[in-house]
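Example pasted here:
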Amino acid sequence: MDVEARVAEAANAVRSRIGDLQPVVGLVLGSGLGSLGDEFEEAVRIPYEDLPHWPPVGVAGHSGTLVAGLLQGVPAVALKGRAHLYEGHSAGVATLPVRVMAALGIRALFVSNAAGAINPDFEPGDLMLISDHLNLMGQNPLTGPVVAGDHRFPDMTDAYDSALRMLARETALSADVPLKEGVYAGLLGPSYETPAEIRMLERVGADAVG
């Protein structure tokens, strides 16, 4: 079964559970933010094991639940936990949940995670808005047969939507929440980086790594 067929089957399974809800926002809740999924109203909660082709979660603290409902009145869908490449999944498998959210109709995707600071001006607990990234994982999630909606060699000049980043800055300012901004370096794991690797990442412009 190809990627499109797996995505369609998983999306249909979700739709059968959430009824008429049409989510417009998707969230991937990383370490420390899973509790945001508890804030949904009129929530439908679906364990990943109930969804066909869904990759299992193997990281402690990730509950492995899809939550759909209203978040502050906005129809949304959230993933409490995700699969990682270092667990042995291919990029095609690890990205299936995001493709399913796109098939459900989301127009904006917010992804969170816990990362290590490289920028010396950052402090533990700071929030960093990603402005750009360095893909050092050794593979690209677009590798493989072209899937509907994908494009070969997409323009990555503004990979992180400038309007959404501006909204994040304005929201943080109005809420008096300090917000840093920087370049995220993505490495495969599952080991932390060596001191030499951290020095290298700093020299090539990374502000945080995970």
Notes: The chain has a mean pLDDT of 94.
